[in-house]
Predict the 3D structure of the following.
Amino acid sequence: MKKNLLVLIVALFAFVYSVQAQDRNTSAEKTRYEQVGSHHSFSVSTLCRLEYSYEYVWKSGMSLIGRIGAGSEAYSPYKNNYSVRNGFRLTIEPRYYLNDEDFFALKANGAILIPNTPYDVELVPVYGIKRNFTKHWFCEFTIGGGVGYYSGNNGRLYFEPHLQFRLGFKL
């Protein structure tokens, strides 16, 4: 019950913050994501993961992000039993920006988990909100759910819930 209440509060906060962002005045010449353009960044995300990413931005509101990172990974080795292990992750994420800061994305992840090195692959559609604090600092909140495959224990498909907060620095 407490988890459901927490997810509801976070989702409500994200919605209200999104509505406030839409009301702000923006540049008529270029949208904010076009002004930022393609960039490299480093970020720390939930579950203590450090990542390097490159985002390539098109004028159409689309972008493509490639990420590589290391840290804690959540996966499901048994039915409805999620575990956290250390690992390395590679992510490809096409995004479509709805406005200057809100987006839909399809995250395609692959992770190698340590110590016994099974792999974990996920395909997760998400809704996200990205806010820039300064020229270099930003934060992102994403929520969604999809499907994952864990190679250990004779292989297994599972539901992959997604709730993530990322704090980053653009170069």
Summary: The radius of gyration is 17 Å. Helices lie at 2-23, 32-36.
